[in-house]
Amino acid sequence: MRSSNSLSKIKAENAKISFSYIPVAVFVGGTSGIGRGIAEAFARHTKGNAHIIIVGRNRAAAESIIASFPQPTSPTAKHEFIECDVSLLKNVRQVTSEILNKHAKLNFLVLSAGALDHNRTRLTEDGIDPVTALSYHSRWKLIYDLAPALEKARNDNEDAKVLSVLSAGNGGKIDLSDLELKKASLMTWIQSLMTYNDIMMDFSWRGTDSFRFEFCVPLDANMGLPCQLHPSLLSSYDTGKLWGVPTVRDSLYCWRIGKHGNDIEKQGYYGDDTSRDALWKHTMEVTDSK
Ligand SMILES: NC(=O)c1ccc[n+]([C@@H]2O[C@H](COP(=O)([O-])OP(=O)(O)OC[C@H]3O[C@@H](n4cnc5c(N)ncnc54)[C@H](OP(=O)(O)O)[C@@H]3O)[C@@H](O)[C@H]2O)c1
């Protein structure tokens, strides 16, 4: 259970975060909620000396968040907004190439864009409902397209991490004959998206497995998110200490963090080799990835 003791420990650990380089961090969903909390805390703990890119639709919100960041002292640090509706895969392609054109390396990719809408009848031009697209396909595509920049950071011995905020541990069995989730009931649809996220974060990414993923469910988000909790997730070293997880894991690239900040390991995990292969193939086709 999270306690005031763990919160104060987390705050203390956050205060120690420092980088020997200017980190590059992308926050997709950083204009609001959890993503905003993480972005602001990241800016605060780096004292603004980071290249921070917020991706979303709400320019006014982004500009006000960026204006609140500490002014960097490093001339290479920069804070910017890229306006993008990431529920459309063509827009994701555009935003990832814009980021790759500017940045050979990426240290942190924080994915929290989402929406609460149970109406699955409205489909995007990709033929996917927006919630499914935001919770899974666009996140998958962002990771897939930006993997070379994460790899570059890892090869340079820098942090290279992806955090996907959804609902670890609350998934369910998936139906391999309905990976498009066209026939799924409301509950099966929601739980399948969580399992898709689990599998996405645990893919080992076929040849790009040199970086580690971290995965988090909102921590008491409905009670007012304590944003101080999140920047700790951006450092494997601090995360390891904070959550009691070993800092270095040789064979496991995905941490699943539950709502109390604990490592939930494979609890509520419904992936296996068969579903991983089927989902990978399906997603490559839907996202038109090569
Ligand atoms: N809060 C909770 O209790 C809770 C519980 C379980 C799961 N979750 C999941 O955790 C994630 C984060 O939740 P939250 O509470 O931080 O959500 P939130 O406050 O509603 O923020 C959602 C973010 O997603 C972005 N977004 C939505 N549609 C987008 C689009 N089409 N293109 C680009 N960006 C888009 C929004 O940015 P713009 O408006 O700028 O586009 C915003 O920054 C979501 O996936 C949510 O479903 C949350």
Q: Give me the CATH superfamily.
A: NAD(P)-binding Rossmann-like Domain
CATH topology: Rossmann fold
From the coordinates shown, what is the CATH architecture?
3-Layer(aba) Sandwich
Order of helices and strands: HEHEHEHEHEHEHEH
The residue ranges in which pLDDT falls below 50 over 5 or more consecutive positions are: 1-5, 205-210, 217-252
Task: Work out the helix count.
Answer: 8
Task: Tell how many strands the DSSP assignment holds.
Answer: 7
Question: Structural class per helix/strand content?
Answer: alpha/beta
CATH class: Alpha Beta
Strand content: 5-15%
Ligand set: NADP nicotinamide-adenine-dinucleotide phosphate
Q: End-to-end span in angstroms?
A: 43 Å
**How many domains?**
1
Average pLDDT, all residues: 80
Portion in helices: 25-40%
- The outline comes out as globular
The whole-angstrom Rg is 18 Å
The strand line-up of the biggest sheet is 3-2-1-4-5-6-7
Protein name: NAD(P)-binding protein
Pfam families: adh_short (PF00106)
GO molecular function, one term: oxidoreductase activity
Keywords: Oxidoreductase
Task: Give the topology.
Blueprint: H1 4-15, E1 24-28, H2 33-45, E2 51-56, H3 59-68, E3 78-83, H4 89-102, E4 108-111, H5 130-155, E5 161-165, H6 186-201, E6 212-216, H7 236-243, E7 254-257, H8 273-286
Parallel strand pairs: 1-2, 1-4, 2-3, 4-5, 5-6, 6-7
Helix pairs in contact: 4-5, 5-6
Keywords: Oxidoreductase
Pfam family, one: adh_short
Protein name: NAD(P)-binding protein
